[in-house]
Structure formats: C-alpha cells, structure tokens
Write a structure and sequence with these properties.
Chain lengths: ~270, ~300
C-alpha cells in the first residue's frame, strides 16, 4: 500500500516536472543549437545590440515605476483608512478592486480605444484635446499607466489586505499619535515599516504584470518590452526565443526572490 | 454586573470609531474611487455605449439598437465565441483533472521544501506567461521546434498551431492555477476522515468516491470556473502563437480594434467585448458562491 502510494507520488511529480521543464530546456537548446552553425551563443550576445531592445526595455521599466508609484499612492492610504474606520466603505473598495477581474484586458482595451477616438472626433476644439494627445505620447504613453494601475488593483488589494491583516493598524497609529506624531508621520513612520513585506509583494507583482503586459500596449500601438519581443519574433526566431527565455527567467527570479523575502519577513514578525 | 461590564467594554471603541471615521476615511478612499471611475469607468461606459449604438452610413447619425449584439452572435463572430468557449472549457477541464493529483501529492508530501517550491512556482507560473511562454512552446513543439524535429512529430500529424496545440500551451498556466486554488481545500481534508473511512473498511477508491470528492466538489467546480475565465481572457499567448488559424473571440476583437473589419461594423468589437464581460461576469457569479461554500465546509 505504502509502496504503491510512493510510486504514484513519483509518477505524478515526474510527469509534472517533465511537462514544466521540457519547454524551458528545449527553448535553450533551440537558441544555442542553430541548424548549420552548431552550438553558438550568438542569439544571446546579439540581444543587447538589437534595434529597439534598450528603448523598449527602458519604456517598460519607466511604465512599471510610474504604475507602482501611483497604485501604491492610491491604495495604501485607502486600505489603511479602511482599517482605522469607514467600515461601510470596505465592501465598496473590495468590489471596485475586483471589477477589473470581470473585464478581460482585451475588452478593457476596446473601451480605451473608443475613448481615445473621442479626442479627434468631438474634443478637438477643447483644452481636453491636449490631454488626450499628451497621454498618448509615444515616448511615455501615460494612458498605459492608467490601464496598468487598473489591472494591478486586484493583485495589490490582495497583497496589502493580507499584510494589513497581520498587523494591528489602529494600535500602531494610536501609539504614534499619543507620542505626538501627526497623521502623515504616523502613517509613514509607524505603519509603513510594518507593511514592508506587503508593499514589496505588491510592487513586484505590479512590476511583473507591467513587464509582461502585451494586450493593451500592442492594441493601442505602443512598443514596450513584450510587444518588442513579439515584433522580433517574426524575423529572428532564435533571438526572440532567447529573449523570451531570459525574460521568463528574470520574471520568475524576481517573483521567487519576492516569495523568499515574504516568507522571511513573515517568520521574522512571528518570532518578534 | 455583567451587563455594565460589557457596556463599559464596548462603549469606548464605538466612540473612537465615530470620531476617526469623519476625518481620514472618506478623504483617503476618495482618490482611489475617483481614479477608478475615470480610468476604468469611462472606458467601460464607452464600451457599453458603443456596443449599443449604430451609425447610419448615409446620414452619419447614430442611434441605439441591439444590431451590434445580434451581429456579434452570428457568422464568424459566433464561431469565434464558441471556439473560445470550447477551448476554455476543454483546457479548464483537463487542467482541473491534472491539477488535483499534483496538488494532492504536494499537500501530503513530507518534504516541506518540495511543498514550498511547488506552491511558489505555481504562483509564478499561474500569473505570468504571455508572449515569452508562446515563444518557448514554438521553440519546443512548433514546426521547427526541438521536440518536433527530434521526435519527428510532424510525421504523426502534430501541429502546434491548432486547437490542441493551444490546449497544451494553456495548461502551462492553468495547471499551476488549479494547484493554487485547490490546495487550501486539500489542506482542509481531515486525516480523521480518512482514518474513519479506513476503520469502516473503505478502500482508497471508496474514500475518494464517497468522502473526499464530495467535500472537494465546490472547490473543484470553483477552480474549474476560475480556469475557464483565465483561459477565456487569454490573448497574448494565442496572438503570438496561432495568429488567426484558430478562431477565438479575443483574436476577433483585436482584429476589429486594429481596423480589419467591414465598414459599419466597427462597434461589433465593442459588442464582442460586452459578450466577453458577460461571460466573465457569469464566471465570477458562479465562482464566488462556490468559494464561500467550500470555505464554510472546511472551516466548520
């Protein structure tokens, strides 16, 4: 009985490992074992010098930084306030932060594209038109930041909610307040340090989301990193797979590091 | 005595809540709500509005009708919608069936490190695939893919750019999602239940058939629905892999947004989007009660 159970265990784990590791291994082989050239690392060394790599990666990172800043600025005060009071608002915020789950990105971008068309159609004589042009600036399309903040809300909500659940916000704030701290000071110096794990978690998830996001950016005609990989794929197969492998590994390493940090802070706080 | 005590205990927090609610509560939440109203509400309303409005080609005047919605449920659009539903249902079904044993093996494992590793990896794999994932599979099982060439899969009629090809790729993020979803429910299965079943002479199969699966059923259904929604909304992977050789509603919408539609059908993309939102909303409406139900079972 026990032996059969163990066999079953190994078969399941083995098949899972096979399915999840083979595509990665095969992709690496695909990039270094080029037909007619033998084993070569050209695909990897070419990445940096390829047109658009630097600019698209930079754009993605800038978008990620802006998205993280805005989503945290919006969410942290709101979530802390919900813990301190305003309990009637809590269901409202929960629903608002879950709504993006009901609207798939492709449907969301269809809506955004429609709104952006209003600019030239109806608003060309109003000052709002300038805003419409500005948010679609090719060098830094702010409209993508707006979309990504919305798409990150469910992740960030969950990360912050579990972080806040672990600490007693009210006691922290009241302690800081009775020591003479003003509201902003209590938030920044008493609450935020205790939320470090949750803030990191939320930031990393948002970073991974923005770096990998393709749907909205491609359909609105901008070229951050994921769209660049896609556009390279048509002409340079080896190169695009090499970049894909790298970007998957980098994203996963980031998220694994995050899981490590999250785990450690959790054990540290339970010990302290 | 007790009454006065509880009265004293309860009173101060209530007043302090009231005192604090006025100042920070609304002010801190308002920016978030305003932002969502603008960045999410306006596009949603635009979609809704566009889905129901029709422009008369001759006069240029627009009027409200359900013409777009009707069009979105006919011909190629209907084929795409059904194709998406079929692909999502099949891959979610397979993902559920394969994810359950993997989660079960991981949950009951004695090695903590293995558990942690698989659960962390699942969290990573479940959320982030997209274009890189598609290219990794093209390099593995595509026409010039490593496995295709070495195992001569093309001779056996293998084609990655097909319905089943997409299913195999989708499972790469659906199985981990299932593992994540079902793990809490599996952890809630008491070992006493298994022992009680064994003491009454039940075999492992009987235990699963009569005890474990009925308890897990709401969670399994909830997981299936979640997987369905995830597969249904996926666009990047399909776009990077198959182009348009498999009819999918996401690919149709993308085509329409990029301007590849007949004149007068621009708003059909919005109607299709509305169809998608309705399906996704239905998914959530089924998932949330199931989730609550399984949570109640396992906490009790």
């Amino acid at each position: 009985m026990a032996r059969r159970l163990n066999l079953w265990r190994w078969v399941v784990l083995g098949l899972a490992a096979l399915y999840f590791l083979v595509p990665l291994a095969a992709s690496v082989i695909f990039t270094i074992d080029v037909p007619g050239q033998g084993v070569t690392f050209d695909a990897y060394s070419q990445i940096v010098s390829t047109d658009g790599f630097g600019s698209s990666l930079q754009l993605s990172l800038e978008l990620a930084a802006a998205t993280i800043a805005i989503v945290l600025l919006l969410m942290v005060p709101a979530m802390v306030a919900l813990r301190l009071g305003a309990p009637r608002l809590r269901p409202a915020v929960e629903v608002v932060c879950s709504l993006p789950l009901v609207v798939p990105p492709i449907a969301f971008v269809a809506g955004i594209a429609t709104v952006l068309k209003w600019g030239p159609e109806y608003l060309s004589r109003t000052p709002l038109f300038e805003t419409f042009v500005a948010v679609q600036n090719q060098n830094f399309p702010f409209v993508l930041v707006l979309a990504y903040v919305v798409m990150a809300l469910p992740f960030v909500y969950r990360a912050l909610d579990s972080g806040l659940r672990a600490i007693d916000v009210r006691t922290l704030v009241e302690a800081a307040r009775s020591c003479g701290a003003a509201w902003p000071q209590a938030l920044v110096q008493a609450v935020l340090p205790n939320l470090r794990g949750a803030l990191l978690n939320a930031s990393f998830l948002t970073l991974a989301l923005v770096l990998g996001e393709f749907t909205v950016a491609q359909l609105l005609g901008f070229q951050p990193f994921a769209v660049w990989i896609y556009s390279v794929g048509g002409s340079q197969a080896q190169l695009s797979v090499a970049v894909s492998v790298l970007s998957l590994l980098v994203t996963w390493a980031l998220l694994l590091a995050l899981a490590g940090v999250g785990g450690r802070t959790r054990t540290a706080s339970s010990r302290g | 005595m007790t009454a006065t005590l509880t009265g004293v205990d309860v009173a101060p927090p209530v007043t302090s809540v009231k005192r604090r609610r006025r100042v920070p509560g609304w002010l801190a939440v308002a920016p978030l709500l305003v932002f969502v109203a603008v960045a999410f509400g306006v596009p949603s309303i635009a979609m809704l509005n566009g889905a129901f409005s029709v422009k008369d080609q001759a006069t240029g005047a627009s009027s409200y009708s359900t013409e777009n919605l009707t069009a979105s449920l006919q011909g190629a659009y209907l084929t795409a919608l059904l194709g998406s539903i079929k692909l999502s249902a099949v891959s979610a079904g397979i993902g559920t069936v394969l994810g359950l044993p993997l989660a079960q093996v991981v949950v009951t494992s004695r090695f903590r490190a293995l558990r942690e590793a698989v659960l962390t990896a699942s969290g990573v794999l479940a959320n982030f695939g997209g274009v890189p994932l598609a290219f990794a599979f093209v390099a593995t099982l595509g026409n010039a893919g490593v496995l295709t060439k070495h195992l001569h899969l093309a001779d056996h009629g293998w084609d990655l750019y097909s319905f089943w090809g997409l299913v195999i790729v989708y499972l790469y993020f659906l199985i981990p999602l299932m593992v994540l979803t079902i793990t809490p429910a599996l952890e809630g299965l008491r070992s006493q239940w298994r022992e009680a079943a064994q003491n009454n002479g039940a075999t492992a199969v009987q235990y699963w058939r009569h005890v474990a699966l009925p308890v897990l059923l709401p969670s399994l259904l909830g997981g299936f629905v979640l997987l369905f929604g995830s597969a249904f909304a996926a666009y990047a992977t399909a776009a990077a892999m198959v182009g348009s050789s498999v009819p999918l509603v996401t690919l149709q919408i993308a085509d329409a947004i990029s301007g590849n539609v007949l004149v007068g059908q621009e708003n059909v993309a919005l109607a299709l989007s509305l169809d998608m939102v309705l399906v996704a909303g239905l998914v959530m409406a089924v998932y949330l009660p199931l989730q609550r139900r399984s949570a109640r079972w396992l906490d009790a």
